[in-house]
Write a structure and sequence with these properties.
Belongs to the AIM9 family. Its main location: mitochondrion. Keywords: Mitochondrion, Transit peptide. The structure is a single chain. This protein is α+β, with helices and mostly antiparallel strands and 539 residues long. It is 39% helix and 13% strand. The chain has 18 helices and 18 strands. The strands form five sheets. It has a seven-stranded mixed beta sheet, sandwiched between helices. A three-stranded antiparallel beta sheet has the order 9-15-16, covered by helices on one side. It has a three-stranded antiparallel beta sheet with strand order 10-14-17, with no helix packed on it. The radius of gyration is 25 Å and the shape is globular. The relative contact order is 0.10.
Length: 539
């Protein structure tokens, strides 16, 4: 079978012939196409953005040390026998979860190395699942994804980190071309996106989980359950299985978490998943959460674990009414790309044909309620064209209706967001300190109960008048600060996320301090000014 041919042995650090290692020239790609030379230490650092709050913590979560000579040797071997030296290493513009390097060889070949950062997800599982998923896409569905030459999900290898070595995607990122493409070219690309989605959703899955090679998980006693994915001929002895979800939202950071019995899949349906994520949060909260001051809510009383647990228990009561199980209950899940933004699609500039779809990390077979909605190119704000993108979205929906009715119904359901927001907000809510958003989504469900539940059943939960008033006061403070921050972003002064390009960090810090002082000065007395100082998010 093809998958057996793909199981490339992990690089051991022993070359087939002796090489004298010399560090190749190291370069870093910048935002606008320039390249600058860097030192080796910079390869391991996160260099694209800085943060106006918790900067050191954010950078540490994206720092990835590895052994460059061993990675170069592995890439040379992956490039074939006619490659003997690496002539250049280019550090690509960084995403949030991975280091990506392009290693150029003396035979003209380029090998892409991807190494997950510490924040990418669980060790072993994140890499093992991505590799298996991409092979499933190539073998079963003929999706154009770059071929993998070699990989290791064990950081105890010669490289000292998990890695994937793969071919460089052909074509150009769609993000470089989209704003200049005529409508006909955009429409052609949208047609191809629908075709790719149709291939993806032509296979349905019996569980919600990530794809793995069975041989990778069978020997891992800590994995609670596996579920085989049948081969096209119905053979249950498939190379592929469904296992744990890998997205970081399901993996809390505090030390000792391994002792918690958290459920991460595979889940048999949406209902089981929706309840499990709340129970995970309750267990994590009981073990790790500490009372914390929420200055938008009270200057004196901290938020407690009991408050969050009570909210989660009310959410669990809502679950039967928030979930829409499909008619096909045996195979409720489908596979889609987790983040189909423009730079994850490569096209041939001459024909506008899609040549590759990259970045399948964290992809999972999911119920339709958990799937991404529209691709970035179909969002109203793409390229600042507003309503001009509506015709593309209509082309997409019209074609989708005839190919995947289940997904079309979800995308056109009037109250889909209202119904699904609470479930999307639960994973990691406590660690994000974002009880407000979850409570807000649940209050909206209660307020529009007849739209969510059309059977006439009474809503099983309620919020007291006092709870609603406290929430309203908290919302007023949050919206007031957000209004100021949005104005600063619209004027190009400070980003709403607090994340700035590294080259702009010093200027952003000065601007942040200036506007923070102005914001605090709005207070009428010392007490108000102290409150405003606490409310400013970038300290």
């Amino acid at each position: 079978m093809l998958w057996k041919l793909f199981r490339t042995p992990v690089f051991t650090g022993k070359s087939q012939f002796t090489r004298t290692y010399t560090t190749p020239p190291l370069w870093r790609a910048l935002e606008h196409g320039e390249e600058v030379p860097i030192e080796e230490a910079e390869l391991y650092q996160y260099q694209r953005y800085r943060w106006l709050t918790k900067d050191a913590e954010q950078l540490a979560a994206r720092y990835r040390k590895f052994r460059l000579p061993a990675l170069v040797d592995a890439a040379i071997e992956a490039a074939g026998h006619d490659a003997s030296n690496c002539t250049k290493v280019l550090k690509c513009i960084e995403g949030q979860y991975n280091k990506s390097l392009i290693l150029s060889m003396d035979n003209g070949q380029e090998v892409v190395a991807r190494l997950p950062n510490p924040n990418a997800g669980p060790k072993f599982y994140t890499t093992a699942s991505e590799v298996a998923t991409r092979q499933f896409l190539r073998d079963r569905l003929a999706i154009p994804v770059p071929r993998i030459y070699a990989w290791s999900a064990d950081e105890a290898n010669a490289v000292g980190a998990e890695y994937i070595l793969e071919e460089k995607a052909s074509g150009q990122p769609l993000g470089l071309l989209w704003s200049d493409l005529p409508f006909s070219a955009r429409s052609h690309i949208v047609d191809q996106v629908v075709d790719i989605e149709q291939r993806l959703t032509s296979v349905t899955f019996p569980r919600h989980g990530c794809i793995y090679f069975q041989s990778d998980l069978g020997s891992r006693p800590e994995h609670p359950s596996l579920h085989p994915i049948q081969s096209p001929d119905g053979d249950s002895q498939s190379a592929f299985v469904l296992g744990l979800l890998t997205h970081p939202r399901y993996w809390h950071r505090p030390t000792g978490e391994a002792r918690l019995n958290l459920q991460r899949g595979p889940f048999k349906n949406m209902t089981e998943y929706a309840r499990a994520i709340a129970k995970n949060e309750i267990q994590w909260t009981q073990t790790h959460a500490q009372p914390r001051m929420n200055d938008q809510r009270s200057e004196e009383q901290p938020e407690t674990a009991d408050e969050y647990i009570a909210l989660l228990k009310r959410y669990i009561e809502l679950v039967p009414y928030l979930v829409r199980e499909p008619e096909d209950r045996e195979f409720p899940s489908q596979l889609l790309h987790p983040d189909l933004h423009l730079d994850n699609i490569f096209v041939d500039p001459a024909t506008n044909d899609i040549t590759a779809v990259i970045d399948w990390q964290h992809a999972a077979a999911s119920p339709v309620d958990l799937q991404p909605l529209f691709a970035q190119m179909l969002e109203p704000t793409t390229a600042g064209t507003g309503e001009g993108d509506d015709p593309l979205r209509q082309i997409y929906l019209t074609k989708l209706k005839g190919l995947n009715l289940r997904r079309w119904e979800a995308l056109t359901e009037p109250y889909h967001k209202l119904r699904t927001d609470p479930t999307r907000l639960v994973p990691g809510c406590g660690e994000r300190n974002d009880l407000f958003s979850l409570r807000h989504a649940m209050i909206a469900v209660v307020a529009q109960w007849d739209d969510v539940c059309t059977s006439g059943i009474k809503c099983p939960i309620n919020f007291s008048q006092r709870e609603l008033e406290e929430h309203e006061e908290e919302m007023e403070l949050i919206e007031g600060v957000s209004l100021v921050l949005r104005q600063l972003q619209e004027q190009g002064l400070l980003p709403l996320s607090g994340m700035v390009l590294r080259e702009q960090y010093d200027d952003a810090q000065r601007l942040n301090q200036h506007f923070r002082n102005e914001f605090i000065a709005l207070g009428e007395d010392a007490k108000q000014r102290a409150m405003l100082a606490r409310l400013w998010p970038y300290s």
